[in-house]
Design a protein that fits this description.
17 helices, alpha/beta, binds pyridoxal-5'-phosphate, PyrdxlP-dep_Trfase_major, pyridoxal phosphate, aminotransferase
Length: 460
């Protein structure tokens, strides 16, 4: 284990400079300045260390991305070699670079067979912006330029750019900046605990009902005006909402019926998180487009993109002429070299199979045990994504009053006890690195149990 690079300054120094100059994403700037940021200095495997030397169990894989864990030498070597050889060249003007070609080839090998082409971007948000332009371009080339509308879901998350935040269904984001942009409409999410339970439906009945909301919206907008439906196989930032098994097959049927493109936003669910390479394989859909980012490089360097299925690719290639869209960093050679090393490592370590057969089912078992806790009303998991819903009364599943912000209380205890979990509404969620072992999952469950106990003590 190496010494931290950052020994010259104290935590207070870092915090003061941070507060003076750094505006953080999704942050109340003033509140953070008053409190002081946690300064994270080092990572190894599934653990992080902060500037106070505290070891932290990173049960969120950074931000759902560090799939292979921290400090993996093959990724570090790939970045170093590529930086030395060719740190940057673009993919505009009929040029290409070996790492971008290799990554495109490898993605085509790993993705479902209808995907033979990829368009690279720098992030998940840029990838979803690409989706909006690409599907509208597709329909224009198909002689149906009026097909402009994209349907997505409330409480979905598709990024933070104008199009990404518009596709997303986060009211707090729409309130700032006059969103959504025109041509994007939303339907309710397949969240059984929130909607189906209250409607008195079983999970499977509710899955069909939630899919029906798509058909209703299509008929309301007019099928001839709808370009695409986009959704995350499992909503991540919305609180790890695992849909009923009946949901996605029905969505597929509806998209097929009206000829609407299906877009699977796999920024979180891609590259093994659900126990398959892509979440669409776990839920049995055949999307026309897949957005990815995060896990493609395990977050070591920024990279995103769109896998373009043959239905769309053939039209863009054969009829499209120039697609007037792209980014300076589309196909960045260092990012792509790290992507290749990362995906090869996932394959070599058999992480996808491990999540499917071993760690995913084991985490589900640990979560079933956590359901016994007096604060926990419901548990959900899918592969290595998990959620606990906190309730005031386990008998009636009555929630806590919103002003108590129970999940934030719990998150505070996680913070103090060396565990990173995320709070969303009244849910506590995890998505540990795919390299996590059974013993480490035991450690995670014990930490969660302790934090729940401390939260319960506060709440009673
Ligand atoms: N799509 C999904 C499903 C995401 O979870 C995220 C980020 O969390 C994004 C898109 C946006 O990705 P980025 O933050 O890389 O722009």
């Amino acid at each position: 284990m190496t010494e931290s690079l950052y020994r010259g300054r104290t935590t207070r120094d870092w915090q003061a400079a941070d507060a003076a100059h750094f505006l953080h994403p999704f942050t109340d700037f003033k509140a953070l300045a008053a409190r002081g940021a946690r300064i994270v200095t080092r990572g190894e495997g599934i653990y992080l260390w902060d500037s106070e030397g505290q070891r932290i169990f990173d049960a969120m894989s950074g931000l759902w991305c560090v799939n292979v864990g921290y400090r993996q030498q093959p990724l570090i070597d790939a970045a170093t070699r590529q930086m030395q050889e060719l740190p940057f060249y673009n993919a505009f003007f009929q040029t290409s670079t070996p790492p971008a070609i290799e990554l495109a080839e490898l993605l085509a090998e790993l993705a479902p067979p209808q995907f033979q082409h990829v368009f690279f971007a720098g992030s998940g948000s840029e990838s979803n912006d690409t989706i909006v332009r690409m599907v509208r371009r597709y329909w224009a080339l198909m002689g149906q330029p009026q097909r402009q509308v994209i349907i997505s879901r409330w409480n979905g998350y598709h990024g933070s750019t104008m199009a990404g935040a518009s596709l997303g269904g986060m009211p707090g984001m729409h309130e700032q900046g006059g969103l959504p942009i025109p041509g994007i409409v939303h339907i309710h999410q397949p969240h059984w605990w929130e909607h189906g339970r209250r409607l008195g439906l079983s999970r499977e009945q509710f899955g069909l009902q939630a899919a029906q909301w798509l058909e209703d919206k299509i008929l309301e907008v007019g099928p001839e005006n709808v370009a695409a439906f986009i959704g995350e196989p499992v909503q991540g930032a919305g609180g790890v909402i695992v849909p009923p098994e009946s949901y996605w097959p029905e969505i597929q049927r509806i998209c097929d019926r009206y000829g609407i493109l299906l877009v699977s936003d796999e920024v979180i669910t891609g590259f093994g998180r659900t126990g398959q390479w892509f979440g669409c394989e776990r839920f049995g859909t055949r999307p026309d487009l897949i957005t990815f980012a995060k896990g493609v490089t395990s977050g070591y360097v920024p990279l995103g993109g769109v896998m373009v299925g043959q239905r769309v690719a053939q039209v863009l290639i054969e009829k499209g002429g120039e697609f007037t869209h792209g980014y300076t960093y589309s196909g960045h050679p260092v990012a792509c070299a790290v992507g290749v090393a990362n995906l090869r490592l996932i394959r070599e370590l058999k992480l996808v199979e491990r999540v499917r057969d071993e760690t995913g089912p084991y985490m589900a078992e640990l979560y079933r045990q956590l359901q016994e806790h007096p604060l926990v009303g419901e548990v959900q998991s899918c592969g290595l994504m998990g959620a606990l819903t906190l309730v005031r009364d386990k008998g009636t599943n009555e929630p806590f009053a919103p002003e108590i912000d129970i999940a934030m209380v719990c998150r505070g205890h996680c913070f103090g006890n060396g565990l990173i979990m995320r709070a969303v509404g009244d849910r506590m969620i995890v998505a540990p690195p795919l390299v996590v072992t059974r013993a480490q999952l035991d450690e995670m469950a014990a930490l969660i149990q302790r934090c729940l106990d401390l939260t319960l003590a506060d709440a009673t």
